[in-house]
Amino acid sequence: MTDSEQEVQHQESESKLIALRCALLVLFFVCFASNLYNCVYHVQVIVHYSEFPACEFTSYESLVLTVAILMQFMLVIGVYLVLTQKIRDLRVFIMLFFLAGWLQMLLILVLTQRYPIAHDVHFRWQEHRSLAHFEDWFGCCGVLGPDDYLLSTGQLPSSCFDNHSNLTKDLHYNGCLNKENGNSAILRYEFLTSLFQLILLVFLIMFYLHLKKIKAPKRNLHSVWKSRIVL
């Protein structure tokens, strides 16, 4: 191979490395923003229902929140490893990131399948939207019970009664928030973060394999920052 061919090959390898690193930084930002949104949302739900012992789903919310916070720290570490090109550390990080992401997805799956309408009910109630569909389907009334309507509007919707009879004997006394084990779609918006992280994992593996192939040297973060050559 001539010197010119080697130079062309080197430039192609560098271009691919820069492209992968650029894509990874964008994906890191997307995953960080998605996890941050999830953290804020879960905190709001936990705080909102912390005074109601009957809301058992908040214990699952706490577990999901804990893992989401852990993922935030891991994403920051991942950015550092990508910028410094530490191949051995990056390999360990990829394995740990996969395990943490898998755990997060399983916890979300348990939460959304055991309490399939908790998030939907909370969101709709906060947005002052109707719960009639859930009340008809699950035989429930309001978020925590009929008092939710009585305190807010002073009257109960017909969907809180069997067959919309409006008879006291047909009233649903249980709230919709804690309804368990109903029919729920496997693919839900709660899994968007897991999808982003799966894409990030694929690009991390590609980046690691490319670093290993071209035997890229480690980079010092201080020199990278000083020279402003992030990519």
TrEMBL record:
Gene3D superfamilies associated with the record: Tetraspanin
Superkingdom in the source lineage: Eukaryota
SUPFAM superfamilies xref list: Tetraspanin
Keywords annotated in UniProt: Membrane, Transmembrane, Transmembrane helix
Residue stretches spanning the membrane: 18-43, 63-83, 90-111, 191-211
Keyword Transmembrane helix: yes
Any one of the GO CC terms: membrane
Protein name: Uncharacterized protein LOC117571423 isoform X1
Gene: LOC117571423
